[in-house]
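Summary for the steering committee. The consortium agreed at its last meeting that each partner would contribute one worked example illustrating the joint modelling workflow. Our contribution is presented below. We chose a case with several input lines so that the handling of multiple components could be demonstrated. No manual editing was applied between input and output; the record is shown as generated.
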Amino acid sequence: MKKLFYYTAFCLAVIAGNSCSKIDNYPAPSDTINGSTIDEGTGATVQTEIGGGGTRVKLLEISYSANPTPEYFQSMQDGTFNDDKIFAATYKVSVEGPFVPLVTTDNTGTVTADSSQTIKLTSKATLNFKVQPFLRVEWVGKPVFNADSTVTVQVKITRGTSNPNYQQDITDINLYVSNTQYDGNNNYDPRYSKLVSYGGSTGTALLGQVITITTTGGAMPAQDVYFRVGARINAGLDEYNYNAPMSAKYP
Amino acid sequence: MKKYNYILLTLFVCLTACRKLDIPPKNIIQDPDVFSTPAGIQAYMARIYSELPIEDFRYSPQRGLNFFWIISPTPATTGEAISRDQTSSMQEAFGSWSWDIWGGSYTTIRDCDYFIQTLPSYASNFSTAQVNAWLGEAYFVRGMTYFGLVKRFGGVPIVNKTLNYTVGTSTDELQIPRSSEQAVWDQVASDFDFAIANLPAVNTDEADGSRANKYVAAAFESRAMLYAGTIAKYNTTTLFDGQKNQLCGIPSSAANGYFLKAYNAAKTLDGVYSLYLKSWSATDKTAQYQNFVNLFSDAGSSESVFVREYQYPNSVHGYDAYNVPRQLIGPNGYSSEVNPTLDFVEMFDGIPKNSNGTIQNLDASGHYLLFTNTMDLFANAEPRLRATVILPGDAFKGQNIDIQRAIYTGPSAGGISPLLPAGSRSQYPLTNLVVSATASQTAYKLPDGTLMNPAGLSGIFTGDQTCAISGFSVRKWLNPNLPTAQVLENNETQTWIEMRYAEVLLNRAEAAFELNSAGQSGATNYSQDAFTIINEIRSRAGATLLTSAGSMTIDTVRIERRKELAFENKTYWDLKRWRTFSKEQNGTIYRILMPFYSAQAGKYFFDARTDERNDVYTYDPRWYYEQIPQGAISKSPNLVQNPGY
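What follows is the complete predicted structure of the assembly.
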């Protein structure tokens, strides 16, 4: 009986010892894709918002299937991106955001243009995508505190593309106020931000002009805040184009 | 010798034991048990009907279909109302649904397919009429289920026969790709068309509207085709797969065909159902109000086309428990989840309004208008509004629903100026205001010596949002005869009217208006038809009638629909298919109406402002097409995800 017990115990010990010896035989993904989304006209990166609503990078791992399920990662607010947890493989990479899509189809589904980049990723790849943003939002001067502690900003909005499919009317021009630099349509203080929607071509008529916007809701609180202007047309997923956030010192 | 005995015994055991193993298991219900008797069919029907994806008393975008806990109510996602538990726009949160929209819908579709494939081999047990009617019902349920999928996801896989998997074989054949969105809408139409052709005018098993007849199928076809037409016309999101199937979006050239189908389907109900007018009177606003209230509880209503019935304790809901005004709170707690916005109330007639359509609460010199009672502002309100929304001070369950924000103690001589500058989103300044944080109030002594609570019995409290936070409370669907002790979750059985004739008429009017504006002409004058219908609806509602067909715009038709079908979980889908959700909810803070009592004037005044909580609603245009559940894509990699996810 005792012998049987030892046999059994020995067998269990061997099984247990063996089953633990293989934790995970694959190394963690450790390769990097970084780069930026660049406005083809100005050479500057295309500003966007963080948190799922802005520019993102699309990866198609075509090493195992011609039609794989896409993977995505989000761009940073300033239009640069960096992901250092990617498996080495062959990828077809593109970016999606508030600009003329890199992959366009006509109204029957035929691909008419495709400026995706295909890379064989080994350790690190830097990719820059030249795109045509729907709109360019530029600061004119700096945000100015008024006598009543409201803030006035000036911007100029122009089109970033002459593509005839993306000449829709401007639907919104918004001044966002936030106490962090992560300022945008998904993160702003509704008490002071000035949101204006436009119908018809009234918004479009402001193209190329200096637009003056003042915060709403009376005096700003005595703290440093960030300002940012976003504008959009009714194209793609209706994402906003922004200028870079700028703060103003409370007087 | 002994050895032979053993061999014989073994042979004996083996041969006899194997004799009858291949028999149907006795403990599993077999096809003949179900498909041979009307009772079996009824059981099958009960199952597939209970799985119909309809947004009833047990639906919310947050927690899904057929779930009891409705504290993030649908109207608080559409701008009809605000709620303490729903503070922003949202898409349907499939991840937290207890019923899986994708797997569940395809289970229902399989149940229908199985029924459609199997019933014909048992047809000899029944009359032809019975078999046709039941097949019609299975097609109806399948059409409804595809409808529930396509309005959420766009194109989905069409599976019109049961799939069988043999263990050990490849699953490639089961991984059916998405069809084009247009193909799925056409599938919905063809299922409903089959149902219309095969169902009788009155369902012989259940004639009370809880099971389909041919007109029920036609009514839903009018709804579905109207959705398809508006998507074809207004959608701007497109997605193609590698085979050039348009998974999201419909070519705009198809719009008129769908509108025409919607129009014709709606028209088949003409003369079969009618608007409920049992206690209506052309001259009596109170009768018009009571008539609109009764419409939702009268089991014999000529307006109810398709209903879902509840029965205690098997199938119950808790609508009243969640939504009664605070002063009628039931033993569970809750109350006041749905608080209609001022934006919604201002759509109705009979309220004094400024030239821009907002409620008139100030006099010409910019001071508050003063009222002896809060209901004076609504003295001429459209009866339908009173039957839809509990206005401050209106009567319900024998009580006046007491809604008051605070007592204003400041001077009233020469008029009271607005408490905040126009458009301000700040908190009310507390100087000159006596407020109450909770429902346990300390009475304030008025100048004449009488005592008054700072807030009403139903709110508004500054520290407890279980109250009428918008200044209004919902009235529609509430049961006025339910004793307060019975106002409990999982205890209520009012019937949900999923399809009423008013909607069929409004489907027809919208389709007619769209056809007319697209320059289409038919046997009837579309514009005139839409005009007549809107006025029928308005007349029953006690609203102001339209003067001419030419004065109508698409917004006339849409707003009428939103008023008539408010709080019936329809507006959510309307805003989606019109693609106006992202325009209406674009950094939007909804407006509220706060009643105050001026201690010095001894009168009430109203302040119109934005939601005090500053809850911002921004609808992301990606949400017009919902995200296909990731689990479904993992199982079937042929499914292409919708744009933006």
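The radius of gyration of chain A is 26 Å. The helical segments of chain A are 2-19.
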